[in-house]
Amino acid sequence: MKLILIGYGTVGQSFTRIVLTKQKELVEKYGFSPKIVAIVDSKGAIINPEGLNLKKALKIKEEGKSVAVDRAYGHLNMSGLEAIENVEADIMIEVTPTNVKTGEPGLSHITAALKKKMHVITTNKGPLALALPTLLELATQNNVYLKFSGAVGAGLPVLDFAKKISLGDRIVAIRGILNGTTNFILTRMEEGIPFKNALEEAQKRGYAEADPSLDIDGIDTACKLVIMANWIMDKETTLRDVRVEGIRNIALEDVRDAMKRGFSVKLLGFINEDLVVKPTEIPKQDPLCVKGILNAITFKLELAGEETIIGRGAGGKETATAILRDLLEIAQTSVIM
Amino acid sequence: MKLILIGYGTVGQSFTRIVLTKQKELVEKYGFSPKIVAIVDSKGAIINPEGLNLKKALKIKEEGKSVAVDRAYGHLNMSGLEAIENVEADIMIEVTPTNVKTGEPGLSHITAALKKKMHVITTNKGPLALALPTLLELATQNNVYLKFSGAVGAGLPVLDFAKKISLGDRIVAIRGILNGTTNFILTRMEEGIPFKNALEEAQKRGYAEADPSLDIDGIDTACKLVIMANWIMDKETTLRDVRVEGIRNIALEDVRDAMKRGFSVKLLGFINEDLVVKPTEIPKQDPLCVKGILNAITFKLELAGEETIIGRGAGGKETATAILRDLLEIAQTSVIM
Fold first, then answer.
1. What is the pLDDT of residue A315?
2. CB contact under 8 A, A309 and B168
3. Which residue in A332, A313, A328 sits closest to A123, CA to CA?
4. Residues of B in contact with A317 (CB under 8 A)
5. pLDDT at residue A333, as a whole number
6. Is the pLDDT of residue A36 over 90?
7. Contact A271/A290 with Cβ under 8 angstroms?
8. B296 touches chain A (CB under 8 A)
9. I want to staple B322 with a disulfide (CB 3.0 to 4.6 A). Which of A226, B150, B257, B334 is the partner?
10. Which residue of A has its CA nearest to B161?
11. CB-based contact B169 A161, cutoff 8 Å
12. Once rounded to an integer, what is the mean pLDDT over residues B48-52?
């Protein structure tokens, strides 16, 4: 199975690292041998129809360079769109940075790949939050899959879990901590660290998005709500429909005051009648009340009551496992392995 | 699709109640109209190849009688095995009480139905804990499904979640609260209620198994460990392989003492190298540390870290939703709806 990988930051590199280390296991356990034939980063592409040398690609990135510097297979300045146009592949994996204003360049990459009848796997929240219904329709028209398990909850299969519990029952409401960075910051604030310092620490540790306002102003959470509302609850909504308030104005004393009363301040996303993101006090014994970079999502069901899932909602390796899961699911329903 | 329902206690009745109330929705949303053609309780059967009147069956049970008293369709003293032998159906649903010594009568029901090429759905832990590998093989030989989503976690899809996160990753260990009754008792003990009184309260509320020793001596938890070890982790184990210690000897002061140090005493099941059930102190901030009848299970993954799911792990209605989910999954891959 031939893959194009567009976007070669933390998630893209983690994915190739996992493919490298799991190579033998993937063949033995699933009869699956993926061949990455193109990788595109912000400065160009590397292409080999026989399958790229991933070790070499990773080494070039670790040296801080573009994959395009490779002499034999590099193409300086080649764009993702050009790679999709020129390279034959079964699946395109889109992991460029999230842009919530235009969805670009991800939106164009996904659209072009689907039109070329490639399956698409993405963890890019921008295009999904802006155009999920349209993209799903385009996938159906072209008889290919559009999978995005890693876009919500990273490795934690939030979307699949929700689909499973919906079968024969009905999700009436969702609330959750959907952003690990803000949860890390709020946890540190409970330990007495001021907001600014906690944010710096999150950035140093690599938790925060490139533009931290996506995290702390609640936009990342809002994107995930939109994806869940569309995909799980058949609500046709976009980012504009979400009422969003971030954690910029939370003071140390707000956090301390809540703690004294047995509560924690958390940035929660809600799906009820409306979609809302806002800092909320929750009781310490609520299953949602998790610490650090953990995400936690509670689904309220008509029959089975409340069900909660908890796990690391961020991280390159974690997100890459979701891509691999999507990939194996496509492979298992496909003839080309 | 024609169904035989064997066992008509809390779970069986809840299931027919859901089928009744969801009739229209099942047709509209899934094109699925199940027809229950036989119900068997401990005193006999009621059979109608055209589909039973479920309202009437429920009313008879509410009056404390056997379904077999029905004049037109009742068969006094007909056994489950005789019903399987004599009634044509696509699926047999087995929800008789759990027997961990012999697995009977469930084991014989499941075996007979599979041999007659019926799909089987069960929530009966006895036969599964004693003979899961054999039963799965029998199902495969006869080209039918054996589904048991409700046997672990009731409505909470523990087994399906575990399968999903295993894809491309690997579960290295599992630990969890798998029995709601003991968790309810231990929670009440934290509130100062002695063990005996808390157990009585659990029985009054209908949480405890018919034989409460299954709960409090850890046997129910052990059964669930065996099912998970076999199904999720491909470990061929049986009940005899589990080291089991229940909560009978936990005193109020043990619970109080742990609380003072920021811990809660929980009855945990562990799957590592060995299968172990034992009362364990866990920190209050551990996602596993849930209260009341909730279940919570943490899966430790090679790549994605720890993932936890939490929900009501008991209850007739909750368990019945798992049966409906299994049923819809069979229906969706079958031609007869």
1. 86
2. no
3. A313
4. 303-304
5. 84
6. yes
7. no
8. yes
9. B150
10. A161
11. no
12. 97
- A156–B contact, CB cutoff 8 A: yes
pLDDT of residue A231: 94
Structure-token pair, residue A334 = 């496909």
Separation of alpha carbons B88 and B146, rounded Å? 18
Buried b / exposed e across A60-94, counting CB within 10 Å, b at 16+? bbeeeebbbebeebbbeebbbbebbeebebbbbbb
Chain B nearest-CA distance from A320, in A, is 9
Q: Does A17 touch chain B (CB under 8 A)?
A: no
ipTM attached to this prediction: 0.94
CB A127 within 8 A of CB A97: no
Respond yes or no on whether the N-terminal peptide bond of residue A49 is cis (omega within 30° of 0).
no
Q: Do the Cβ atoms of B291 and A309 come within 8 Å?
A: no
Eight-state DSSP code of residue A301: E
Q: How far apart are CA A271 and CA A241, in angstroms?
A: 11
Is the Cβ–Cβ distance between B232 and B162 less than 8 Å?
Answer: yes
Interchain pair B310, A310: CB under 8 A: yes
Is A224 noted as a catalytic residue in this protein? Answer: yes
* Residue labelled with tokens 């936990």: B250
Distance from CA of A75 to the nearest CA of B (A): 31
Tell me the whole-structure pTM to 2 decimals: 0.95
- In chain B, the percentage of residues whose pLDDT exceeds 70 is 99
Cβ contact B309–A305 (<8 Å): no
From residue A202, give the alpha-carbon distance in Å to each of A151, A215, A224, A235, A313. 20, 11, 20, 33, 14
pLDDT of B155 reads 92
